[in-house]
Amino acid sequence: DIQMTQSPSTLSASVGDRVTITCRASQSISSWLAWYQQKPGKAPKLLIYKASSLESGVPSRFSGSGSGTEFTLTISSLQPDDFATYYCQQYNSYSLTFGGGTKVEIK
Amino acid sequence: EVQLVQSGAEVKKPGESLRISCKGSGYSFTSYWISWVRQMPGKGLEWMGRIDPSDSYTNYSPSFQGHVTISADKSISTAYLQWSSLKASDTAMYYCARLFGSSGRDAFDIWGQGTMVTVSS
In this entry, which stretches build a coiled coil (chain A) (predicted)? Predict the structure, then answer.
């Protein structure tokens, strides 16, 4: 299986901050990467697919970049609704795998 | 509205069997693969396997192969996840999710609300 490693595991930030989360793949996955947001007690929500394509209805403050083995999710100006856990997921392989998650907390 | 609606929470004893369901609506159920994803308490997301509802072709993560069975009934637009003998370690939230494209290798664009399974003696 392709291993996905996210960093940091926890991030403390304030409203208005620019936030960057990194996801690294154990082998090249081209641009076959998605990002999700999950709030407590809720199902995950798709934010970004194909590394940088914004899902319909997702605010433009979210952006994704990268290819190969290194990817980033950036929130340009953190809003109160953005405090959540974020996961990356690769779909280069038919055995799909997620990163371990990054919890974005209020500083 | 495109949605996946899952069956309700379950409390079971070790050794019991269980089947939970995921009903799709608002789209052509046979045009998209369905996957199941496990989330143990306080932990991350784990992909379990996928099914093509058009022909019930399935494949599983190596971590879950042989421990669960995924099936579907396209006549009622419903996918299932079942266990023949539950263990305490199966306690988790289980999500069904629709795969974005038709290849079976994609992102998850629609998620069910989750089914909490608790296994305790």
Answer: none
Instruction: Collect all residues from A whose CB is shorter than 8 A from any CB in B.
Output: 1, 32, 34, 36, 38, 43-46, 49-50, 55, 87, 89, 91-101
The average pLDDT across B87-110 equals 93
Share of chain A above pLDDT 90, in %: 95
Q: Quote the number of domains for chain A.
A: 1
Helix (H), strand (E) at residue B37 = strand B34-39
Which structural domain, as residue segments, surrounds residue A72? 4-106
B105/A43 Cβ within 8 A: no
A49 CB neighbours in chain B (<8 A) are 100, 106-107, 109
Instruction: Please choose, from the candidates B25, B55, B24, B22, the residue with its C-alpha nearest in 3D space to the C-alpha of residue B36.
Output: B22
CA nearest neighbour of B108 among B65, B48, B26, B40: B48
